[in-house]
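Fill in residues.
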């Protein structure tokens, strides 16, 4: 009657606890280290499947954010250059 209960994901892997998810998210927010860890967790074969999928989703969102950020910043820079370009005298 004294059995230990272990939650599984349904695929034979042990589920990841809240504490490990918190540490994962904190580490991903460190600029260079987060990118390196996301690449390692996303494409390594010895990582929990749910963490691997989370890292891949994080990398996809990171790429989308970088692309959108580049587009928006170039539009804003272009608008500022156009607005200031006519009023500058040499």
């Amino acid at each position: 009657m004294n059995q230990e209960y272990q939650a599984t994901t349904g695929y034979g892997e042990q589920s990841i606890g809240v504490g490990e998810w918190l540490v994962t998210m904190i580490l991903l927010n460190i600029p260079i280290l987060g990118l390196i860890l996301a690449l390692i967790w996303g494409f390594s074969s010895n990582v929990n499947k749910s963490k691997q999928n989370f890292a891949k989703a994080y990398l996809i969102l990171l790429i989308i954010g970088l692309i959108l950020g580049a587009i928006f910043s170039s539009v804003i820079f272009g608008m500022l250059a156009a607005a200031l370009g006519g009023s500058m005298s040499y």
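Residues 18-84 form one domain.
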